[in-house]
Amino acid sequence: MTRKTKRAIFILIFSEFLVCLGISLVIPVMPFLKTELHLSATDMGIMNALFALAQFVASPLIGRLSDKIGRKPVLTVGLLLYMVSEVLFALTNYLWVFDISRLIGGLSAAMVVPTAMALASDITTKRQRAKVIGWLSAAFSGGLILGPGIGGILAGISYKTPFWVAGALGLLSAIVLIALLPSDAENKRVVEEPEQAKLTAHPMSRAFWTLPIIILFTMILVSSFGLQGFESIYSIYVNEVFNFSLSNIALVLTLNGLISLFLQVALFDTMVSKWGERRVIRLCFFLAAICTIWITQAHTKLEVMVATLIIFSAFDLLRPAITTLLTKASESDQGLINGLNMSLTSIGNIVGPIMSGMLLDWNTHVPYLVVAVFLIVSYLMAFLLKQPGKQQSTVN
Question: How many CB atoms lie within 10 A of CB 163?
């Protein structure tokens, strides 16, 4: 891997991390926005879901656009829109402007996340690609997990501070990308290798849609639904049920982020080597389900914190485990897999917050019990998942 390629990958990882950070910065300030502006949990759920809706609608169109005009211009505009979204959120106290801010944020995520994945595929060989996609997945998950913790710490100054800081980082990231990311012409030269020039079967053919791939995509949908269904109302739930303060929320979410990133970066490869992806997936769904139920039955803040630690860690290991299995199941269709992965994640991110917000207005514990049911079903589905051995032999 050349120095330019490594530099490009680093910029992509940072950009993806930053945008995913923006998705979840709002989480710790939600109960205080809700109280101060007299909003319902449904209002907050819809506000979060609008981000994912814009991302879902725009992702396929942006993918085609990046193929035509190049990856770098799309990434640059995406980071600038990210800055606009965060600054707009910081400037206003009106729900409809918050909603517009989240729509712009979703559009920026649609421009940055899949385009970064596509560019990573452009500038790496098949052998390197799975590892780089794993790094990007870690950036994606890390942003989602660390966002609430960082937001909670910065909100100690003012609940608008996280968004001013995120806007400044968005501008800085756009400047760095413009200055240091190689041009699209240079990137295209990197990938002109004989092994990537082979024609593959049409991605929408029946040969592509094998049982392992269908199950894995279903798990991506459920895991994103579960994570957002859990996380989107978490701060409101623990504030109302267990009287968590802003500092309590910031502490638990920061610890969650640090532990989850350590597990993913330092221990994930070891766990997969020792147990295999399928066992890791089953263990994560099982632990997430049990601990989500545990939170609804907990009596102390310590119990809630421990259960939350386990849940976020489980979710943070699920995405790379599922993505790794997908790369093995169909190495030749990475572009399609990235697009479908992002679309299904967006659907989960749309449905999860709205459903949890509406159920929370009805009953405090019901949202987490519903999430637990979906996680248990996924745990049982994981036993149907077979190692894609035949496909692996043909692909490899």
Answer: 26
Q: What pLDDT, in 10s, does the model give residues 94-103?
A: 889 999 998 9
Q: Which residues contact 179 (CB under 8 A, 6 or more apart)?
A: none
The first and second tokens of residue 290, run together, are 């049990």
Q: 215: which residues sit within 8 A by CB, 6+ positions away?
A: 381, 382, 384, 385
Beta carbons of 138 and 320 less than 8 angstroms apart: yes
Structure tokens given for 175: 């400047």
AA identity, residue 294: W
Nearest C-alpha neighbor of 41 from the set 350, 360, 348: 360
Residues 140-192: pLDDT tens digits? 767 776 777 788 788 888 878 888 988 888 888 888 888 878 776 555 544 44
Tokens matching residue 56: 């879902």
Q: Which residue in 63, 64, 55, 60 sits closest to 82, CA to CA? A: 55
- Residue of 91, 113, 129, 132 whose CA lies nearest to 21: 113
Helices (H), the chain: 3-24, 30-36, 41-69, 71-91, 95-123, 126-154, 161-180, 184-190, 211-231, 234-242, 246-262, 268-275, 277-297, 301-329, 334-362, 366-381, 389-395
Task: Dump pLDDT digits (tens) for 254-293.
Answer: 787 778 778 877 787 788 888 888 899 999 999 999 999 9
Give the burial class of 166: count Cβ atoms within 10 A of its Cβ; 0-12 exposed, 13-18 middle, 19 or more buried: buried
**Which tens digits make up the pLDDT trace of 302-327?**
999 999 999 988 887 887 788 777 76
Give the separation between CA 246 and CA 28, rounded to whole angstroms.
7
| DSSP state for residue 330 in the 8-state scheme | -
The mean pLDDT value for 127-141 works out to: 70
CA angle at 88 for the pair 87 and 92, rounded to the nearest 5°:
120
Q: How confident is the model at residue 126 (pLDDT cuts 50, 70, 90)?
A: low
Query: What is the H or E stretch that residue 364 is in?
Result: none
